[in-house]
Amino acid sequence: MVQVYPNVMCYNSLIPLTWKSCLPFNTTDHRNSFDVLNINTVNLKGAKLSCGEGGCGSCTVMLSRVHPVTKEISHDCVYACLVPICSIHGMAVTTIEGLGSVRDRLHPIQESLIRYHGTQCGFCTPGMVMTMYTLLRNNPAPTKEEIEMSLEGMICRCTGYAPILNGFYSFSQESRCCNDSADQSCCRGKSYTDDKSQDTRHSVTGNEENKSPSMAETQDLIFPPELLVSRVFGTFSFMCPKPGMFAEPMSIMIDFSVFKIFVTLPMFLTSREYFIIPYFRLDNFSVAIDIFKSVDATEALTLEGVVCLVDASDIPGKNVLSDVFEDEEILAANKVHCVGQVIAAVVAETKELATRAAKLVKVEYEELEAIITIEEAIEKDSFFEPLHERHYGPSLEEGFASSESVIDGEVRLGGQEHFYMETHRCIVIPNLGDQSLNVIVSAQNQSAVSDKEAGEVRVGPTTKGRKKGLSIVPTKFGIEVKGSPINQAGALVNVYTDGSVLLSHGGIEMGQGLYTKMIQIASTVLDIPVDCIHISDTCTASVPNASSTGGSQGTDLNGMAVKIACEKINRRLQPHKENNPCGTWEDWVKAAYANFVSLSAVGYYGDNELHPDQVTKRGEPYKYFTYGVACSEVEVDCLTGEHQVIRTDIVMDAGRSINPAIDTGQIQGAFLQGYGLFMREELIWSDKGELLTCGPGMYDIPRVQHIPREFNIHLLENSENPTAVFSSKGVGEPPLFLASSVYFATKEAIRSARKDSGLAEDDFQLDCPATAKRIRMACGNQFHLSD
To answer: Which of residues 769 and 486 earns the better pLDDT score?
Structure first.
């Protein structure tokens, strides 16, 4: 039971009213702090639960405590998912809600991320902000190195960390304001590139000026006075907004994208909130492919609060997840193809209860032969069908025959876990009048095809035991597969008599800046300020039959649809502009309305060019290509196999970029994702097909300390692309392959080390990912440290 005492605590005029919630607890309560933060009474959703094992930092909060002797207040940032409730007796817990909000005022730390474009999907942002906030509470003037060290336990899968660091660097000693405003030469008016003597670590060419406001002491929440004297057992304080400020919705929260299967359940007619936990096979005896004979949920259904078990037989319509190949089931019907494939879902009143009930479900399997490795697949003649081929120039046989030399070898590239931190859930709200459903869901399908080529490399020696390598790698990435039905998009533009514009389109915003670009396109075509344009979340009621957002073509498709819709509005307003050339946008809109002119327009764009000939296997499959080149310098420790990316320079052809800041952020994030693929993220399975590298504790995801010490990104100037909206290009996925420049630079460093050791320079194999173990073994064992 949770008791809330609405005691208003207004600390100062710069912070919004903050409410204190005192929550008694039982010493036997097994829940962690995160569970308490997210119960309906407190309703704090800022701290995010991602890995659940203290490895990502998205659930970070600040704990404040008073020393029993010195009475000094100390602050620590902790992972709420690991902290038991009973361990925070007498402490104050500050969550992201206690710092600032867009409704009242953002905290300077939050503002710094906005100024430096340090957030995309935003899932890691609360943890990043709370970590930096705690550091500043303990050390108001940290160094850049201390800022980096404080973030080493955090994970961001979008930004590539560089813009986050650049924002937080504005609070460092090196970036302290000189307070010299007399001659307008204050350091806050300079960019990082103005002063060549400044530390350039993690700098990105083209960053905005360092104008982040300082964090005044008056914006820090004070320690609750009652905790200085009170030692009432079982009470702690949360710094948070007023509890219950949001009404409890009528909703169903569903893990995984399986919302289609629940439309016939009677529970949708109630206002209660249920949790659906999937059941899947995950134990020490799992194999890659099983046929399950029976599913027994009798024991699970006896628990009070468990509603039902849903399996494949409850799904109306197609039991498929994919909308393109239709090769994956929502719930396995009779055969499990991999460890972890969902076969059923338990519906219960709480998440904890659903999880407990799922463990009680008994499944009987018939084990089949497992195929784990590529070699086993070749031996068993197990291939993906159909095989896709594309022929350019002479045949393969002719090409080999005419070549001066043929190199025979093996290349191995490991897989990669996307490790998206955002939860995938949906909310289903029933319309009791007509028995229809409103579904709010997170969904996005990605597809990408690439054509990549490697470039030249060279190497330079360093100290004994450490070697440097340099590599230049280009990339050529095909955008928009011709002939695919997903190459279409729609948009709806509504203009209101006050001059405001509501824009709807079929694209999904997932942190890549799509909404911002759509507003920019509408602003350019209508020739009005962006402040006049409002965008509504993607909804099938406004734009039906929307294609999946992926393949780096979200702006290409949806942007063209927005442009077409806005051009229709312009044509309708043109007569009124001519009648009143000195008028304003609002004047023309009102005149059009008065003359019975529709101010709502639908834009549709479809690219139905002929696709390549599937019989001859010839023809151009892509609409255009995005090009790029990267040069990376790497230093390798030959004794341990560890490496450090010293510097990376990237030049990317983004066409005429609609938003250079957004495109730069996409390049940073894609590069670091590729760096993980080529250098760190190794997937390891057991011989039974169970993935052993689960979670950030076992799976080596790039962190802040792994990004290049100097990271420079340039967008190619004067580049044109007449086939896309405003001559822009897709840049979301193309930069990923550029991270292979780190891999090839590492190989050059290894060659140098082998040469010094008297080993054959080219007689070694370095599989991807090039982990420390593989680098160390490739360097050989002959070291002459006495030299």
So the answer is: 769
